[in-house]
Fold this sequence. Notes:
alpha+beta
Amino acid sequence: MKKIFFTVLFIFFGFIIYNLICKKDHEDTQIDKRIDFQVKEVKKLIKSNSKYNKDIAFFIDMKIRSGKNRFFVYDLKNNKIIDKGLVAHGSGSETGVKGKLQFSNVPNSLSTSLGSYCIGNSYIGKFGKAYKMYGLDKSNNNAYKRDIVFHYYYDVPYKEKDGYICNSFGCPMVNRKYFERIAKIIDHSESNILMKIYY
């Protein structure tokens, strides 16, 4: 009887682990599909304007919950992610339904705006060093007017966690340690780096 019990228990836990692995594989496949599509779009944009960096671009996948890595540094030449980290979204993007976000380009909405951005010059603001951002699409062309910038904030964790992290006022906001890595890439680039925020 004891042997049957442990056999059933083994099968039960094996089934749960198998389902978790399958679910993770499915999620990873969906993430890969989404970024592949966005990379193609960004490459088209880069091809149309020589002022954009042809080697590196940043991608933020808003389908991924904020407690997981969803800011990707992408090597456009070798077609691979070379770094990733946590990034906060705007408090105005919250819908009250966990995992479901809304987006806005309206001033004072405190929302994240989807679309392609050109990373501009750095400056020292209330959060320390930050980078100006220029929206290149109809969905985010108010970014500069809305003071949407790329910056760090101490409450953003460095490592992944279960659940969700703090929100911004609409800016892509990262941990200071991660920001310093990204800042080196931006500062050493002779051309403007593009950032794509998508959902």
